What does this fold into?
Amino acid sequence: ILGEPNDVTRFDSKPGVYNTEIWFYQDKAAAGLPAGFNLVFFQEGNQGDYKLYSPAKDGPMALLAAYMGDAVDYQAAYDQLREIDPQLADVSVSLIPGESGGMSGRPSLASDLLIQRVENSARDLVESKYASKFLQYKDVVEVEYTANYLDSETAVKVVRDPGGPYFVHYAVEPRKLSVGEYGGKYSTTFRINGTVSVPDGPAVYQFEKTANVSMTEAEMRQRSSSPFDIHDLFPLLPGTYRVSVLVKNEVSKEFTSLEQTVVVPPDGPGVQMTVPLLGYRGQKADPGKRLLKPFQYGSTQVYFQPNRVLTRNDSLVAAFQVFGLSDAQREAAEIRYSLTREGSPPVSWSRPLAAYPDLPNVVEERLLKDLPPAHYLFRAILAVEGREVIAGTEEFDLTHAEAVPRPWIFVKLMPPSGDPIYDRILGTQLLGLGRLAEAKALLERASRRAPGEVDTVVALAGVYETLGEDSLVLPLVEPFLAPDHKPVYEIFLAAGRAYLKTGRFKTALDTLDRAASSFGVNAPVLNLIGEAYLGLGKTAEAVAVWEKSVGINPDQPEIKKKLAALKEKK
It folds into this structure.
């Protein structure tokens, strides 16, 4: 009912205290709550479920892993906790920023009253989220993961590679990071599965990546109270899509997800502006590194968190892109900025577009120390010769807190602009969209530029098959059938289908048998094997194989129809 917190501070594996999380909320006055307040959850004895912390009922001693003092000496417990972490000590006596505890360090009654107001309404939040995500992903998540959905903060931005395609940049910040320990090393592997679909239609692109995280004990202690983010990017053709990313922790069997509608604008005349990204720090990127990095705008790397919470000690770093202006328009253009909060006039300023040296990338930085904590709307307006042409907006929260823990980030890089991999990825997307002639041109170019790249060969073979150009399939895939080549399931199937279409039934059978030996028996392989037997005149064998296929997957009306026809001939 309270929704996502504006900020979460975690104390995982911190020496001297039990695992604890501080959830900060603000702007809940409509619910009769303070302008800003914290909720604290802790894991008693570092075991079992987290419980809601009450300053009055639990006291600072409940957060200490080795408190040996008087059970009612709140001041001593507070002093011991403050030596470990002052922020944790402060919230242990008061959940309301700026309010002090009572006599002898005793917690104030206001915090206890606050808990009474929110406890009942918040109780069912996690369970309902688990249920909805289980239903959404029950067909694609292994059984051992389904009870372990993790909430997360996510962000998606569309950024164009100047002179190249648009890229989807995305960030996922799981609620917590779980790792395994072996020999003083802490590690886990994340498996990332992405699907891009047209609205209410089929998938046009899918990818799978891994993220291997490894830390020393010292690094683990240092990062234990900081969030963990995964940043990645991939190219995408113009259009409107549904992007879904599933992130699975293979050690803890936990999973989280990102789902968002993404619009990639078409090429063409007219002025375009990308949606601004709001961060807390900008840093000049190393000009010697040509790899593409998520959330890098030209020469500036933007650091941000998906929840867009900033402090008055931060600088607001806004990054976006502007395209489609002539040289004369660029000279006459300016960017007008404003920050607006409810009930107050906007804070406004402007800057000539020509003042930005890295166009089409625009990176604007502004100090926040003069602004009061509130929810803000950031707006950037492109004006040419005084006329407003296009605008972009984004929201952020300016917190009461003096500081918030910033994430450590695992970054997935991609090859430099112009690499053949982008011809292959975009060609695969064109194939998924049914734009076969364009897909063929891109994939053939990718194959020429990177001969022997198996993913390109598989996609190009699919284009040839769909276009009915079967004579081109076998020269493409046969080199990958050599005994010394690593078996590739899709290559076996493409070759098997091509052999069947050209009447080479014995070769097709041998190839499909290799597929079954290498990757196991499944319905698609069995169906093709049945066709090979039928071509060789071995009807009984074809019937036996197809019956086995139907046993694996009963929902095959075409195979059932073929079986019925063969049985009638007996």
